[in-house]
């Protein structure tokens, strides 16, 4: 079959809190075999909260693998049996203290399709109201607000490096005519 690979065997080599790693043997379309290391991930959601003045809420947090502070939109991992719709609303409230009256689905992205099963669902939140931020015990971040047009410039200038945030900012700007 053209552009298809068949799994011959699969061996779990690591099981962690956030993901599992499998080492698979796959049969290629030419009949040869190849090893495929695959990270199994439950997926996640990101939400770009936009005010009536076309400002967005962003979060800054330390990302251990890169040893730097990143600028991102609110996001989080799907819990077992949780819908991406509910996950997004939960993460928006947890990280920013915001709720919304309008929640628009912008699609899904595969952040690293070569070796990771993670799917991130992207939402735009409008009609924001504010309650109390309730971060997880191991979560430390700062919340800020910037004009969406400035966020687009930061993306285009390479200052926002997070892929999900780049996609959400550019999609939101396009949808809102910015």
Account of the protein in words:
The chain has 178 residues and is an alpha+beta fold. It folds into two domains: 6-41, no CATH class; 44-175, Nucleoside Triphosphate Pyrophosphohydrolase. The protein contains three helices and ten strands; from the N terminus they run βββββββαβββαα. It has helices at 84-96, 148-156, 163-175; strands at 6-15, 19-27, 33-41, 44-49, 55-63, 68-72, 75-77, 98-109, 120-130, 142-147. It has a four-stranded mixed sheet, sandwiched between helices. A three-stranded antiparallel sheet has the order 1-2-3, with no helix packed on it. It has a three-stranded antiparallel sheet with strand order 6-5-10. It starts with 5 loop residues before the first strand and ends with a helix. The model has no long low-confidence stretch (mean pLDDT 96).
């Amino acid at each position: 079959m053209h552009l298809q690979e068949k799994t011959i065997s699969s061996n779990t080599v690591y099981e962690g809190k956030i993901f599992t790693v499998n080492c698979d043997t796959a049969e290629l379309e030419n009949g040869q075999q190849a090893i495929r290391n695959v990270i199994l991930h439950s997926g996640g959601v990101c939400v770009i909260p936009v005010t009536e003045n076309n400002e967005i809420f962003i979060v800054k947090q330390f990302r251990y693998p890169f040893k730097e502070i990143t600028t991102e939109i609110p996001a989080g991992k799907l819990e077992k049996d949780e819908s991406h719709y509910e996950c997004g609303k939960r993460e928006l409230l947890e990280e920013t203290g915001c709720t919304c009256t309008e929640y628009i689905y912008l699609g899904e992205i595969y952040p690293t399709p070569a070796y990771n099963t993670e799917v991130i669902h992207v939402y735009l939140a409008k009609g924001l109201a504010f309650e109390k931020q309730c971060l997880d015990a191991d979560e430390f971040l700062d919340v800020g607000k910037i004009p969406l047009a400035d966020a687009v410039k930061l993306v285009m200038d390479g200052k926002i490096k997070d892929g999900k945030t780049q996609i959400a900012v550019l999609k939101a700007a396009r949808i809102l005519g910015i």
